[in-house]
């Protein structure tokens, strides 16, 4: 991401004023997302929700998750990926993408050169369709599987390394008058990662975020609550605490955490402990500290040496490799929103609003037709959602 120009900053201020006018009417609404508020094109980023809310900003950190032989090192690798997956939020400006349509799909991939170091600058150059170097491929499949409430399913895979990540995205957003709170909805059980080499599965729960600064006109993101990462196979768990920002004073974006041993069998017997994590000092293997917008460090138990886990100050999202528009299906995001995006980028907002209205009307017609069919329920093209709370793939795309 590049820093904003004066023109972009002025555009952001104008967007802020218009969005503020809309939000003031929604104070006290428990879940703004479920209302599917239609926002004028001039307030939107020319990108779909499915493409924007993507957890693979740094596929290089994903493709190496199964490399360490020691369970603790693998857990630290998963934690590292947790922080870099949303690199766009560290330095980028806040944006409002399109509300994805029911059945909408976004497919893409990345190249991770096998000789590249983590965070290497050459990784951006490798993200081309015709890259012919020796690289791992990380793929992304995500689909909007519900409209009311808006829910999407996703899966990322590095087949050569036997690594996959998957989950359900369901967000609840409320506005208090000064702050927007973004939290995981009931269907969102977190992000799951599987490492086939070690037959391990990690579950990562989402903290909640606040968009602050509405009264000052300078928007910023703060994180609160915690992320819990659990791996029953290795018997390791991590708790990452996001420290609440103070109303006065400089935001520190502080993070503290512990990695420790736990008993999966005992925890399964005591369902009441799901939200209450008791940590015995003797079970702690490592502690973490730092800032989720700067640097994060870890210290192994029994040592005093503070080691750098990740430096987020230099990381930027890697470009996505997406098929040319003419090769995409009618259900893919960039094709659905092509006319809207083109007009937004040309600042022809009247035409963009007409094109956006046409997309929305088409969806209403499809919903009306489904009501009069024998099988009115929507069927996902790629995903089947299990009772355990995460999706499995029914089929893979023919091409990425």
TrEMBL record:
Annotated transmembrane regions: none
Domain of life: Eukaryota
PROSITE patterns xrefs: OSBP (PS01013)
A molecular-function term among this protein's GO annotations: sterol binding
Pfam families reported for this sequence: Oxysterol_BP
A Gene Ontology cellular-component term: membrane
Classification via InterPro entries: OSBP_sf, Oxysterol-bd, Oxysterol-bd_CS
Family: Belongs to the OSBP family.
Protein name: Putative oxysterol-binding protein
Biological source species: Thamnocephalis sphaerospora
């Amino acid at each position: 991401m590049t820093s904003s120009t004066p023109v972009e900053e002025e555009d952001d201020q104008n967007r802020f004023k218009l969005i503020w006018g809309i939000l003031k009417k929604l104070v006290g609404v428990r879940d703004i997302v479920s209302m599917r508020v239609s926002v004028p094109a001039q307030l939107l980023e020319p990108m779909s929700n499915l493409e924007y809310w993507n957890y693979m900003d740094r596929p290089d950190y994903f493709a190496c998750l199964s490399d360490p032989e020691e369970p603790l090192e693998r857990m630290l690798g998963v934690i590292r990926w947790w922080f870099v997956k949303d690199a766009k939020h560290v330095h980028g400006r806040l944006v409002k993408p399109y509300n994805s349509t029911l059945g909408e799909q976004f497919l893409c991939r990345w190249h991770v050169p096998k000789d590249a170091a983590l965070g290497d600058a050459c990784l951006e150059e490798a993200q081309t369709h015709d890259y012919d170097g020796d690289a791992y491929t990380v793929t992304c499949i995500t689909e909007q599987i519900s409209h009311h409430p808006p829910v999407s399913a996703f899966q990322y895979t590095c087949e050569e390394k036997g690594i996959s990540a998957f989950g359900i995205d369901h967000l609840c957003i409320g506005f208090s008058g000064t702050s927007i709170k973004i939290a995981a909805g009931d269907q969102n059980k977190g992000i799951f990662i599987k490492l086939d080499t070690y037959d391990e599965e990690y579950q990562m729960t989402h903290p909640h975020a606040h968009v602050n600064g509405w009264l000052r006109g300078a928007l910023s993101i703060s994180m609160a609550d915690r992320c819990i990462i659990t791996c029953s196979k290795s018997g390791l768990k991590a708790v990452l605490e996001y420290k609440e920002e103070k109303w006065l004073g400089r935001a520190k974006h502080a993070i503290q955490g512990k990695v420790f041993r736990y008993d999966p069998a005992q925890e399964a017997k005591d369902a009441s402990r799901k939200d209450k994590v008791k940590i015995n000092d003797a079970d702690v293997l490592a502690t973490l500290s730092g800032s989720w917008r700067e640097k994060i460090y870890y210290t192994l138990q029994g040592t005093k040496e503070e080691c750098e886990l990740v430096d987020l100050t230099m990381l930027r999202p890697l470009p996505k490799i997406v098929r040319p528009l003419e090769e995409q299906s009618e259900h893919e995001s960039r094709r659905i929103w092509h006319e809207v995006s083109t007009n937004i980028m040309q600042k022809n907002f009247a035409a963009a609003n007409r094109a956006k209205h046409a997309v929305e009307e088409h969806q209403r017609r499809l919903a009306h037709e489904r009501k009069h069919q024998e099988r009115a329920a929507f069927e996902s093209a790629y995903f089947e959602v299990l009772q355990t709370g995460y999706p499995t793939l029914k089929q893979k795309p023919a091409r990425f």
